[in-house]
Design brief:
alpha/beta; 15 helices; binds 6-deoxy-beta-L-fructofuranose; binds manganese (II) ion
Amino acid sequence: MSATAPPLSRDLIDSLNAQNLAALQDEYHSLGRVLERRGCAIDAIKQRLLSFSLAQPSWGTGVGGTRFARFPLAGEPTHFNEKLEDCAVVQQLSRITPRVSPHFPWDKIGDARAMLERATSLGLRFDAVNSNTFQDAPRQALSYRHGSLAHTDAAVRAQAIEHNIECIRMGEALGSKAITVWIGDGTNFPGQQSLSSSLDRYLESAAQIYAALPPGWSMLLEHKLYEPAFYSTVISDWGSSMLAAQQLGPQARCLIDLGHHAPNVNIEQIVARLHRFGKLGGFHFNDSKYGDDDLDSGSINPHQLFLVFNELVEAELRSPADFDPAYMIDQSHNVTDPIESLLSSADAIAGAYARALLVDRAALTEYQQGNDVMMAFQTLRRAYNVDVTPIVAMARYERGGAIDTIAAYRQSGWRPRKARERRATSSGAGIV
Ligand code: LRH
Ligand code: MN
């Protein structure tokens, strides 16, 4: 296997870490003493973080936009190779993002073997592939204007099914083990489509994609309340998604995108329910204030992210055997440098997991059994109130990453250098 050639100089990271190490060790050991008084070994938490990892969205390395506008960033990636380079920078600094989730046809991979070698040389692997039947690709025969897998026209459904099967084949060549199927199919007007027949058509199409899954592969169904359809969406909630996954079979599971729910929905309870029924397939981590805002994870509602991981820690304790949800980031970086947002988000997600690991589960169960409401709540809040930054940073440092990722990234001059090397991208509107 060819040696990996990380994009940033090792010396840069080492010299910056040398400046930060003493402070980190001091903070780590003093937090260790606090946690020890609570009967919790800080090294045990760090150990769990050392096996925690996330996938980066290839589409998150470029600047995102809205329907109103997209404001390009000089030096942003212009094709898949450059997206992988930027993912490698995030991985080299964070050390918890070793996988990339590609999106087809946005990512033109050409020769899959060459792309796999390229990714491997950058220290990256591929996670779930994403199909796209929510846009019309250039030279596409039939339009998805009125839907795709649930379209009334069998020829359009066949085209969408074929695309998903192509994505699986490309994924196989890249070493992926899952396909994420999100469709925007739905209606803007009452009466526009039969709410029942459209689901029947979706299930019939999804069954054909399911039949093409290689052994050991997962088909992750991603529900979404609305957008691009604004009256009804075929797979609009976890219930529809779970029932569809149950009907499809054991390789079909449900993916929770944190931004795909109505405001104030109890997403952590959805996590518990999907796990209870063996259909918790994975996550698209992000944050939102209003709709599917695709903001940085933990930037708006870090407590919700903590509560989601609290359910994940409990789920793993309840049945470790079938607990392997895919952890992926899905964000749109409209006003920040995408690399900085991915670094900040990876840190927030690891922090939420570390806090959830600090919950005194024995005490919690006792207070819950005894209906000591306040102490049950306080047990969770006590863990949430811990600043776990030293644990997350120490785990990252021990994996060879940067103690201060954003400072290291800025010190590297990566973006200005890429702005000189890479061609400018066009402005315009739209998600990517
Ligand atoms: C839909 C979605 C889906 C992706 C797209 C980029 O809102 O979350 O996961 O395909 O964003
Ligand atoms: Mn998503």
